[in-house]
Amino acid sequence: MADGKTSAHDSPDPVVGKDAMPGVASRALDARAMKAFAHPLRMAMYSYLTDRGTATATSMAQHLNESTGQTSYHLRQLEKHGFVEEDTGRGSGRERWWKPVGFAVPTYELSQDESNRPAIQALFQTTLNQRAQALGRWLSVENHADPEWVRASIDSSSTRTMTARQARALSEELMSVIERHEKALDHAEPAPDARSGQTADGEETRRVRLYLSVFPLVIAD
Questions:
Q1: pLDDT class for 197, splitting at 50, 70, 90?
Q2: What residues contact residue 93 under an 8 Å CB cut-off, 6+ apart?
């Protein structure tokens, strides 16, 4: 999950965090909204939207093997709690297009109430699974992917000994870098196709996912 900052054209994955930090979504979930989100189909629909940028109830129903009645209902619930909004720049008026809205999950505060913990755990588990699946899909095709995209991608980890203050400084700096690039993208001309289009000068654009976690290791005895 991520304490994601909403951009003008897009939305990152939800982020989990305790305090405000550069690039973190300004809207933090309350317990009611979090429990409304922690529904398997709603989380799957939100994931579908973040993967594609924008979609309709019909396309989500087809992808998720659900009826359009189900996806339409759950989209209304997601809209009610501020997780999605209508993409007014898309569509012909016959069917509404939707896009995701970023949000932060203040897990430490919410977990102080034991009744919130099942929903928090559901969010954690779903997010971990989605991260593993998304990265796994890329790694499975990387060996025959466009070399330009292979060179642009990374999969890296680093483990160091540091204080909480040092870890916080690292997190803030990394989030500042992400925020700077997001702002630049906000002011860039959007591609005709949110998933795989072209810039004005013909350069290919694709949906790109970034995961960032900084945390102290819990080492078993």
A1: confident
A2: none
Residue type, 38: A
Q: Which among 57, 84, 56, 95 is positioned nearest to 73, based on CA atoms? A: 57
Distance CA 64, CA 73 (A): 14
Residue 174, helix vs strand vs coil: helix
148's tokens: 């330009």
Q: In terms of pLDDT, which residue wins out, 44 or 199?
A: 44
Q: Could you tell me which of 100, 103, 51 has the C-alpha nearest to residue 78?
A: 100
Closest CA to 105 of 194, 185, 43: 43
All domains in the chain, ordered by first residue: 15-206 (1.10.10.10)
For the chain, give the number of residues. Answer: 221
pLDDT at 221: 77
Of the listed ranges 28-32, 75-79, 112-116, the least confidently predicted one is 28-32
Residues 35-38: contacts with CB under 8 Å, at least 24 apart: 35/116, 35/119, 36/77, 36/80, 36/81, 37/78, 37/81, 37/83, 37/119, 37/123, 38/118, 38/119, 38/120, 38/122, 38/123
What pLDDT score was predicted for residue 18?
Answer: 46
Q: Which helix (H) or strand (E) holds 98?
A: strand 97-100
Q: H helices of the chain, where?
A: 31-37, 40-52, 57-64, 68-80, 107-110, 117-141, 147-152, 164-186
| Cα angle for residues 37, 42, 45 (degrees, 5° grid) | 135
